Amino acid sequence: MRNRAIFFFAILAVLFCPAASLAQQVHFSARDEMMLMAVEQLSERQQLPAGEISFSSREEVISASINQLEDGKQALDKPIEEPQASIPQTSKKNTPGIGLVSSYLKKTISRIHPYLSAQATLNDNAGLSRKKRSSLQYITSAGVRTSYLTKARNSFNLDVFMNNAYYERHAEQNSQGLTVNSQYNFGVRRNTFSIGNSYFTNYIADDSFGIKTDLQRSYWADTLSLSWGKHFNRIGFDIGGARSESSYEDEYKTMDAATNSLGIGQYLFIGKKSRLSLGYYYRSTKHERVPTSDSRFDSFSLELAGVVSPKITGAFSINYDTSDLKEGTDSRTRNFGLGFAYRISNRSSLSLDLVHTVFDDTSGAMHYSTEDSFNLSVKHRLAFNPRLSLGFSSAVLFKDYPKWEGPHNDYSIYGLGLGLGYAFRQWLDLSLSWGHSRKYSNIDTNYNQNTVVFMSSARF
Predict the structure, then answer these.
(1) Could you tell me which of 317, 351, 342, 370 has the C-alpha nearest to residue 41?
(2) CATH fold of 2-80+101-459, please?
(3) Domain ranges of the chain
(4) Which of 110, 141, 245, 420 is deepest in the core (most CB within 10 A)?
(5) Does residue 90 register a pLDDT over 50?
(6) For residues 52 and 393, what is the distance between their CA atoms, to the nearest angstrom?
(7) Is 314 helix (H, G, I), strand (E, B) or coil?
(8) Whole-number Å distance between alpha carbons of 203 and 182
(9) In three state form, how does the secondary structure of 258-292 look?
(10) pLDDT score at 24
(11) Which residues pair with 351 in a beta bridge?
């Protein structure tokens, strides 16, 4: 416990350094980011780029274990408490209610889990250009989460965290943020209901902390979501909606927006080892002060996933997306994905994703383009030291404009990543990763980039 306390206060000291939100890291050109975005689509679009290998955390496992231990302790204490209840209380100072309150408080406190993380990233080509310019970024995050489960399939989850980011040479990208997420789930027979809310605000600190207030956009955003699911033996469906509002201050008031979204999903189990899923997603954004910025987005999806063998799983997906802008160029995207995962052993796994994307818009054939991406990743946990894990990933993207008349920017991007993770304790992880990417273009926009990321995280 003494070591945990020392580490806890050491991380708190880091938090007072200039910092910002993970969600607001430096964004480079969308053209070059499309490589990693296309690779991520098949794996729920949540994987990190090839150069940012992450090692999965165990917060949910730890939380579930603590809840089970608490339930087991309560069951063991019950036979002891029942005989004591028949013993007459001779002292007026002994109040049974106090014991019940104390037990409830102890159980509640045991479900509260603080967590901390610190990350440093060195990028030798922040602008993705021939003329390299390095960037050093520091990110810290501190929060607390709690969850409560009942035997009636009801659960409540609350997560409150603060992110800070500080860029050594890009002060305009420094940011801070406070997020509060809450969700309540409950089930009635074969029905599952959920209601959640997410609130975010980017508060502005004093200039002495390194955050230049004159460069920040002060705003808040709030999202309320509702969902309902009905599940049978082989078939089921889910429907959910959300309402999001954002409000900016001062000269950025024109960015105020309200967004309504709706998602519908249906699945069917084909046999015991495969599942067919259909989905539709709708999003509409309105800008009260600038109506010309209004937009609509529609997405249709089809996925077939299943178990090929005891060690191999596979998935095939098709997505069709359209965007409708009140002013601007409408577009549509067709995406075809194929992925496989192979469990080499209990300590090793391999995954391969292939994605083909076709993009065009209403402006004509000049903007018609195709993309082909390949991603391979391998993870291994060493046998002689299970706390040590290794990771490798590689990615390739080919971009082509087959209907473009005259010179056009066909290019290819190659990425390579290596990662090393070590679990010092059940509550403390450290990781170090290196990533390299290189672009080759027919109009001389070539570049190469190297990133090194060190990250530490603690959960209590």
Answers:
(1) 317
(2) Porin (2.40.160)
(3) 2-80+101-459
(4) 141
(5) no
(6) 9
(7) strand
(8) 20
(9) EEEEEEEEEEEEECCCEEEEEEEEEEEEECCCCHH
(10) 35
(11) 341, 377
